[in-house]
Amino acid sequence: MASHESTNDVDRREEKRDSDGGSVATNVVPRPIPGERRKVALITGITGQDGSYLTEFLLGNGYEVHGLIRRSSNFNTARLDHLYVDPHNAAKARMKLHYADLSDASSLRRWVDALLPDEVYNLAAQSHVAVSFEIPDYTADVVATGALRLLEAVRCAPKPVRYYQAGSSEMFGSTPPPQSEASPFHPRSPYAAAKVAAHWYTVNYREAYGLFACNGILFNHESPRRGENFVTRKITRAVGRIRLGLQTKVFLGNLSAARDWGFAGDYVEAMWMMLQQEEPGDYVVATEESHTVEEFLQAAFSYVGLNWKDHVVIDPRYFRPAEVDSLKGDSTKARKALGWKPKVGFQDLVKMMVDHDIEIAKREKVLVDAGYIDAQQQP
């Protein structure tokens, strides 16, 4: 498909919806200095949680933002709707979407060459750990080899490009906490192993070709925009529905798994900071606090006056073939070198997500009460 056709397909949507709760960035359009070229950023995975927050942040800093998205029969751009401006409004449209795929090297090369970005953020991935055990080949192709394809496109670009690779705390796997940039990787899933490969591809291209390429090893980061099949959002969605009488139970797996949970809106700022340094490097981004899934349950349910033990059922299907017991980051390097630190704490993060999902449940209840949907779809 020709590039102008794919862009037009994406640009047919003309409606904008308000942002969901939890956003700390605002889409303020600064006036550029006359004659000065805006910085251009290219983001893969722009439709995801991190992509939407990063887009908000970059637009607020005066960037022109381009996102690569996969073709789908349904639009999957809901997280960006509040930022969307019809491209025919050239004076205001500073975010544009283009069709491409990390499995298609030609599309990556074409857009890097055509857009001439100053910065490339590779956030795209099959990012669900449990699903990576179900589709390991696809996960490896997109997460690992996809990063290699994009790095090659950046290497061959007509101008120097700064590159950010989204790493994951899952790469540490069974390595005991706290985990820092010096900790060894011991991945425990196809997703984590693929992320390790992408990490070393990035290091190799930095060392072999002199690319300004950074790895951000981000520990778990959540928000109201988190996908509903991730445990934190699954919990807060259930809390909202249970509070409104739309369901009674939520089915979960390992409650003793401990994670270092932060707010995604804070973490995207660290991504940007990495690419503003004089020299490229790799950074752990974390709150340096660890909480179990059970602690997350306690915080979420107690916030609305409920006892989680009355509503949680353990289902063996949600246990991983190889568990990661404890992740807790040591982000000393990022705090000293970048001047980054998290702004949203654990309790505030949980409350933010629960508040958002109660509002969703309220709207859902209106439809249930009117007979448009069945409240008994979940037990």
UniProtKB/TrEMBL annotation:
Q: Which cofactor does it need?
A: NADP(+)
Record has Iron as a keyword: no
One Gene Ontology MF term = GDP-mannose 4,6-dehydratase activity
Composition-biased stretches (Basic and acidic residues): 1-20
Q: Which CDD domains does the annotation name?
A: GDP_MD_SDR_e (cd05260)
Q: Which GO terms describe its biological process?
A: 'de novo' GDP-L-fucose biosynthetic process
Under catalytic activity, the entry for this protein gives:
GDP-alpha-D-mannose = GDP-4-dehydro-alpha-D-rhamnose + H2O
Q: Which UniProt keywords apply?
A: Lyase, NADP
Q: What is its EC number?
A: 4.2.1.47
> Which Gene3D superfamilies does UniProt cross-reference here?
NAD(P)-binding Rossmann-like Domain (3.40.50.720), UDP-galactose 4-epimerase, domain 1 (3.90.25.10)
| NAD(P)-binding domain segment(s) | 42-353
- Pathway recorded for this protein: Nucleotide-sugar biosynthesis; GDP-L-fucose biosynthesis via de novo pathway; GDP-L-fucose from GDP-alpha-D-mannose: step 1/2
Q: Where are the transmembrane segments?
A: none
Taxonomic superkingdom: Eukaryota
- Residues annotated as region Disordered? 1-31
Pfam families reported for this sequence: GDP_Man_Dehyd
Q: What does this protein do?
A: Catalyzes the conversion of GDP-D-mannose to GDP-4-dehydro-6-deoxy-D-mannose.
What family does this chain come from, according to its entry?
Belongs to the NAD(P)-dependent epimerase/dehydratase family. GDP-mannose 4,6-dehydratase subfamily.
Listed name of the protein: GDP-mannose 4,6-dehydratase
Organism of derivation: Musa balbisiana
The organism that produces this protein has a lineage beginning with: Eukaryota, Viridiplantae, Streptophyta, Embryophyta, Tracheophyta
